[in-house]
Amino acid sequence: MPHQTFQQDCVELLREQIEGRTVNRRAFLSALAILGIAPELFRMKPAHAETKEIVVVNFGGDAVPAMTKAWAEPFNKTSAVKAIVDGSGPSSAKMKAMVESGKVTWDVVDRNLIAGLELGRQNLLEKIDYTIVDRSKVRPDHANEWALGSYIYANVLAYQKDAFGGRAPKTWKDFYNLKDFPGKRTMRKHIDGQLETALLADGVPPDKLYPLDVKRALDKIRSIKKDVYFWSTGAESQQLLRDKEVTMGSVWNTRAMVSKRESEGKIDFTFNEGSAWVGAWLVPKGNPAGKEAFRFMASTQDPAGQVVLFEALGNGPVNPAAASMVPANLKPLDPGSPENYRIQIPADSEWYAKNSSTVLNQYLEAIS
């Protein structure tokens, strides 16, 4: 089987690089767990086998150095147990495999409130220890039994400023109005934040959005889908805007920020009617560092570190106390600022936890 061949090749590559060498045991075991490889296949020098550490896992790329600077380095200055940021990508499938095999090598993972509910209810997560973590440092809806909010991001309306004769689209009703605001659109090839755009455009009041009327939303999306490019990656959405393949896009605020900067303001965006989402810390059941994981999480509630992360990645501070610390020139770009958060609609994590997988299939069928 091709998958087995690839896995065998990974084993050979790992063996060539690791055999007989001194390695970080936790990081190495994490890599093996992801690949489903038995650690007994390798011989490791035990130099770092007893090193105490907290493995913090995100999805890699620029997020690794950004979270290291914002959170790991400040924590490590005062803690005997050191935090390291790993970009392996903490998917639900990987976490489930780790926990069920009893071979957990991660301590804190960067996911969201929805994943917290989904995985927590499967008994795959530790409950957040709110005697260590301060729940009052996030908005009431930004924490649950198994997840603690760590940053805010948004699905926003981005547009070409020169496409509509000096007029600027302000709402999703404008996005769906191809007559007065002509041109191609782009939307995400995933339901997160997309059904909301359709219902708002169709006249549903923001405070009546949830539970989402899926049929009504899909009918609205079908009405314009011939004029929509559906993006799979953030880079793709940014490219479509940069190349003027589209006049408007339903995109992540982080990509909209970069597009605005790179185009010198020719591409702009609005948080109005945006869909506000919360990144969140989760702790896999049986994590090696135990309670130290919650001590690390508590340290990330420091508003100063959250501002550092925002400046690096565009992920807005989740602690409301950080708003006053954001530099003046960046305040309009902060999805978590009181002014911007007020005009967005918080995503309903309970609705998504219960309905996401089923509705996603309906969405993909509707846009195909």
Can you describe this structure?
The chain is α/β, with parallel strands linked by helices and 368 residues long. The chain has two domains: 2-152 and 279-325, Periplasmic binding protein-like II (D-Maltodextrin-Binding Protein, domain 2), CATH 3.40.190.10; 153-278 and 337-367, D-Maltodextrin-Binding Protein, domain 2 (3-Layer(aba) Sandwich), CATH 3.40.190.10. The chain has 14 helices and nine strands. The protein has helices at residues 2-18, 25-35, 63-78, 92-101, 113-120, 172-175, 194-201, 214-222, 234-242, 253-262, 292-299, 303-313, 338-342, 349-367; strands at residues 53-57, 82-86, 108-112, 148-160, 185-188, 228-231, 248-252, 267-282, 345-346. Helix 5 (113-120) crosses helix 14, helix 7 crosses helix 8 and helix 8 runs parallel beside helix 14 (349-367).
CATH architecture field of the largest domain: 3-Layer(aba) Sandwich
Strand content is 15-25%
CATH class of the largest domain: Alpha Beta
Overall tally of domains: 2
Topology at a glance:
Elements: H1 2-18, H2 25-35, E1 53-57, H3 63-78, E2 82-86, H4 92-101, E3 108-112, H5 113-120, E4 148-160, H6 172-175, E5 185-188, H7 194-201, H8 214-222, E6 228-231, H9 234-242, E7 248-252, H10 253-262, E8 267-282, H11 292-299, H12 303-313, H13 338-342, E9 345-346, H14 349-367
Helix pairs in contact: 3-12, 5-14, 7-8, 8-14, 9-10
